[in-house]
Design brief:
Chain B: InterPro entries: ARM-like (IPR011989), ARM-type_fold (IPR016024), Armadillo (IPR000225), Importin_alpha (IPR024931). The complex is a heterodimer of chains A (about 250) and B (about 525). In chain A, strands 1-2 form a two-stranded antiparallel ribbon. A two-stranded antiparallel ribbon of chain A has the order 3-4. In chain A, a hairpin with a 6-residue loop joins β3 and β4. With about 250 residues, chain A is mainly α. In chain A, about 45% of the residues lie in helices and about 5% in strands. Chain B has about 525 residues and is an all-alpha fold. Chain B has 32 helices and no strands. Chain B starts with a helix and ends in a 9-residue tail after the last helix. Chain B is elongated, with a radius of gyration of 29 Å. In chain B, α11 packs parallel to α14, α17 packs across α18 and α25 crosses α26. The chains are: A mainly alpha (about 250), B mainly alpha (about 525). The interface between A and B is large, with 87 and 98 residues.
């Protein structure tokens, strides 16, 4: 199954290789076992309670493994890895009050609000101002149209070619679970690939039709197929996509 | 704690009016003690509070929370004990020896009373030169014993305090010899063990002073506390990072035999310390690893893992096994041949560890399995069809993070053929399909969501296997069902470029425009 896709990441994906892993004796990998050794050896002398022991282990484990949130611009210190999911849900799921799309930072959210819900923004765009900011904090470049910014993200910042800021929706966990459930319920009905093909074709037809409209280049499409969080049917103007081979 | 409050009631009326201040200081003390206590717990040094002969004349105090007043008192007593020792050492007349022993004993008691001995006070008062004098050749055993004991506890604390023992080292090493009485040799070994536990610098000093051979010889007898203390001291001495000491140790006449003997037959306490020696031998010295593997050390290790329930013992035995597998490819290819009894034995005890309640055992057993699973196709088949897999699948969804990461390595290694040159390794479809069908994918996608770079990488790599290798193009659908797209999309605003590229690459390749959604 030769996949001829022209994304730049193909050749450099680090595939899983099955290798033997060796650790130095003072590697952090062994630290919990070393700690256990000393605790057990001194337990009687120091009269440690079970609680104290657990607290101690936790403290030392956490000290050794201080993690910082890896989302760009955040840097929050996480007390443990387990905390990351909660932190992400609390800090990186900024949701739009108008359309409930979700973004990982408040900056992105505010960009979205300007671009999607602000007529003043659209007015400036129509008059030719470069209003579409690059999404990467610190870059600073601005573009006159959505497509231009999109291309910049792909070219300069290696965003996936299928990335679509406007349609980027990151549903909350609850929504995700609900979607999963619905998907599983409907799974049986949708096994027939022919049905999907028909859907695709219809969508494709729409997409190519819209892309031919002269004004469609500058404004993000208001077409969102299916649910807001339907990942696969994002609209990206054909004009900026190289032809892709269907699987 | 009750003692403290009654004590303060008995004090001057003046004290009660500044009771708040004292209470504050006590609380502050508790915090410092808390930190000190933590540090003392983690150190590779051990305080000697009860002599080998079970010296019952000093009640061992369990209350670490000394008040400031009590602390000052202890310091003062220590200073005067050192003064006393000074005059005893200078004294030449009748009964000099007894005088010296009494003075040493008093100092020793003060240094053994609590978990935080008044070392600073002792050093300030000039204890070391006096103790060195007391170690001189020809001194009576009792004197040597008490002096070595004092030095042991001085060396059990902070780095600067341990380093203060430098002048005493040559004599301590000398008294390890076979002419010394066993208790004296043991106490000197203990002191040296603490010194070696301090760090690389002191270890190198000890090695250059010839501490290794006599300590090694102390490990040769069949039993006794001396053997155990010597083994412990050796484990501190050879822990590197320079592998020279480890290599030197295995070459000492009789050591290999003693190691095997103790692992096979000795009581659990002694076997534990010897196992730690093996841990360092196998982690640091390729030469030692080779020698150990050839001498069939795996058998007694497996035996201990199968029969013991002592966590103290299981940890170093399991780790030794792990180091021997990881350190020498011959272990897996020539000893652990699939079909041989030893191989079944190893898998069996690793499974036992996976079932254990102890975090360390589950994690390190998974690590060992992952390395065996990195062997030949036959090794992968062996593990795949063993009892390990259902356990691993369960651990992947329920265990703490560090265990899940190791489990991920095992499962992934089972799905990928041995690396053969450049390019993508081939998939072992049978294993991949089965494991995915048994629900492992969600565990890997959880790892993608982790803040840990290594784990996220593993998650993405395994996801790639699924996307590539599941038949009928089922991969993408399965990944989506487990919210894999979601997890990968998080990386668009992630600061790690490699992970971003990996995730974006997969999303582009498998979930591009053409990807339909089953709604």
């Amino acid at each position: 199954m030769a996949m001829v896709v022209d994304y730049k990441h193909e050749s450099s994906f680090p595939y899983w290789t099955s290798v033997c892993r060796r650790f130095e004796p003072d590697s952090p990998f062994f630290s919990s076992g070393n700690l256990e050794r000393e605790l057990l050896a001194k337990q009687v002398a120091l009269d440690l309670t079970e609680d104290e022991r657990n607290q101690l282990e936790k403290m030392i484990d956490n000290d050794a493994r201080s993690v910082f949130c890896p989302i760009v611009g955040c840097g929050a210190r996480l007390t443990s890895l387990e905390d990351f999911e909660d932190h992400y849900a609390a800090r990186h799921t900024a949701s739009c009050s108008v359309c409930s799309r979700v973004y990982p930072t408040s900056r992105l959210l505010s960009i979205h609000v300007s671009e999607a819900h602000d007529s003043f923004f659209q007015a400036k765009v129509a008059r030719g101002y470069a209003m579409y900011e690059c999404l990467v904090e610190g870059c600073g470049l601005k573009f006159k149209n959505y497509k231009g910014r999109q291309q910049h993200l792909v070219d300069k910042h290696k965003f996936p070619t299928s990335f679509d800021f406007f349609n980027k929706a990151h549903p909350s966990k609850k929504k995700r679970l609900k979607n999963q459930q619905k998907r599983r319920m409907h799974k049986k009905d949708e096994e027939t690939s022919s049905k999907m093909e028909v859907e695709n074709e219809t969508i494709d037809g729409l997409v190519s039709a819209v892309s031919k409209l002269s004004t469609s280049d500058s404004s993000p499409s208001n077409i969102s197929f299916g649910r807001r969080n339907a990942r696969g049917l994002t609209f990206v103007p054909r004009s900026i996509q190289p032809p892709r081979e269907k699987k | 704690m009750a003692d403290d409050s009654t004590a303060s009631h008995r004090r001057d009326p003046i004290k009660s009016s500044v009771g708040n201040v004292a209470a504050q200081r006590r609380r502050q003390n508790a915090v410092t003690v808390g930190k000190e206590r933590r540090e003392s717990l983690v150190r590779a040094k051990r305080l000697c509070r009860v002599g080998a002969t079970g010296d019952g004349d000093v009640p061992v105090e369990e209350n670490d929370m000394m008040t400031d007043e009590e602390g000052f008192l202890l310091d003062a007593q220590t200073s005067s004990a050192v003064e006393e020792l000074k005059s005893a050492v200078a004294y030449q007349g009748k009964g000099a020896m007894q005088k010296r022993v009494n003075a040493l004993r008093e100092l020793r008691r003060l240094l053994s009373k609590s978990e935080f001995p008044p070392v600073e006070a002792a050093l300030k008062a000039g204890a070391i030169p006096l103790l060195v004098q007391c170690l001189s050749f020809g001194s009576p055993d009792e004197q040597l014993l008490e002096a070595a004991w004092c030095l042991t506890n001085i060396a059990a604390g902070k780095p600067e305090e341990t380093k203060a023992l430098l002048p005493a080292l040559p004599l301590l090493v000398a008294h390890l010899g076979e002419k010394s009485s066993l208790p004296v040799a043991e106490q000197c070994a203990w002191a040296l063990g603490n010194v070696a536990g301090e760090g690389e610098e002191l270890r190198n000093v000890l090695l250059s002073q010839g501490a290794l051979p006599p300590l090694a010889r102390m490990m040769l007898p069949n039993k006794g506390s001396t053997v155990r203390t010597a083994a412990w001291a050796l484990s501190n001495l050879i822990k590197g990072p320079d592998p020279k000491a480890a290599t030197e140790l295995i070459k000492v006449d009789g050591v290999l035999d003693a190691i095997l003997r103790h692992l096979r037959k000795s009581d659990e306490e002694l076997a534990t310390e010897v196992a730690w020696v093996v841990v360092y031998l196998s982690a640091l010295s390729n030469f030692a690893t080779g020698v150990l593997v050839k001498s069939d050390v795996l058998q007694p290790l497996v035996e201990r893992l199968a029969t013991s329930n002592s966590l103290q013992l299981l940890i170093p035995v399991l780790r030794s096994l792990g180091n021997l597998v990881a350190g020498d490819s011959h272990t897996t290819s020539t000893v652990l041949i699939p079909g041989h009894e030893i191989t079944y034995g190893v898998i069996k005890v690793l499974v036992k560890c996976l079932k254990s309640d102890h975090r360390v055992l589950k994690k390190e057993a998974s690590w060992v399995l992952s390395n065996i699973a990195a062997g030949s196709i036959e090794h992968k088949q062996l593990i795949y069809s063993s009892e390990a897999v259902p356990l691993l699948l369960r651990l992947l969804s329920t265990a703490p993070f560090d265990i899940r990461k190791e489990v991920a390595y095992v499962l992934g290694n089972l799905c990928v053929a041995p690396t053969a040159g450049e390019g993508k390794p081939n998939l072992i479809n049978e294993h991949l399909v089965s494991l995915v069908q048994r629900g492992c994918l969600s565990g890997f996608i959880d790892l993608i969501r982790s803040a840990d770079i290594e784990a996220a990488r593993l998650g993405l790599q395994f996801t790639e296997l699924v996307l590539r290798g599941m038949p009928n193009g089922d991969g993408p659908k399965l990944v989506e069902q487990e919210d894999g797209i979601d997890a990968m999309e998080r990386y668009q605003f992630h600061e790690n470029e490699d992970l971003r590229n990996m995730a974006n690459g997969l999303v582009d390749k498998y979930f591009g425009e053409d990807y339909g959604v089953n709604e």
